[in-house]
Amino acid sequence: MKPLTGATTTEQAPADPAATDDMLATQPIGYWSGLAHAAVTRQLRDAMAKIDVTQPQYWVLNRVNSGLPAPGREEVVAQLTPLAEGPHEIARVVDQLLHRGWLSTDGTQRLHLTEAGEAARARLRQLVTEQRAVVHQGIGDEEYVAALKVLRRMVANVEAAERQAP
Q1: Residue whose C-alpha is closest to residue 27's, from 38, 11, 39
Q2: Do 103 and 117 touch, CB atoms closer than 8 A?
Q3: Strand, coil or helix: 11
Q4: Which residues, in sequence order, are CB contacts of 130 under 8 Å at separation 6+?
Q5: Could you read off the pLDDT of 67-109 as tens digits, one per residue?
């Protein structure tokens, strides 16, 4: 496969956690993005575990609270399953939150946050904001946006290459 226009031809080196700044251009994105994902997810999930909540529970609370028309169970499951660790996780989370009294259903089986669910969502939002500050320490918004633009472009490049593959 030939490189896309404007693509770099820097030769890839093996992943090296001790790579110096001048060596970073040769480092594999999969290694570094995977390391970042694992570290950030672990930190957030550890913080949530201390208050007996999981990240998927937070996703569901946010989705139900999104300001859109109240979603049904299947909508929530379909939208969040790509983020989950298996095809049944989100359905289980909905059941957990119904059991906890953080979600309720109406006569049309639409999901709604209860008062306790909204309080939990607000508390989690504060926790996530605090954890985000830890992750972003020393990183300005401009630098963060630039990093995300690069990652977004890499995803688009891979998706375009997949569409062109025979």
Answers
A1: 11
A2: yes
A3: coil
A4: 47
A5: 778 999 999 999 999 999 999 999 999 999 999 999 999 999 9
Q: Give the HSE-up count for residue 51: Cα atoms under 13 Å, Cβ half-sphere.
A: 16
Partners of 112 in the beta sheet?
104
Structure tokens at 114: 């209860």
**Per-residue pLDDT tens over the stretch 10-69:** 899 998 899 999 998 999 999 999 999 999 999 999 999 999 999 999 999 999 998 778
CA of 127: how far to CAs of 34, 48, 62, in Å?
Answer: 23, 8, 14
Residue with tokens 């999981």: 54
Say how far residue 138 (Cα) sits from the centre of its chain. Answer: 21
E strands of the chain, at which residues?
A: 103-105, 111-113
φ, ψ of residue 112 to 5 degrees: the values are -140, 145
What distance, in Å, lies between the first and last C-alpha atoms of the chain?
11
Phi-psi region at 28: left, alpha or beta (left = phi > 0; alpha = psi -120 to 50): beta
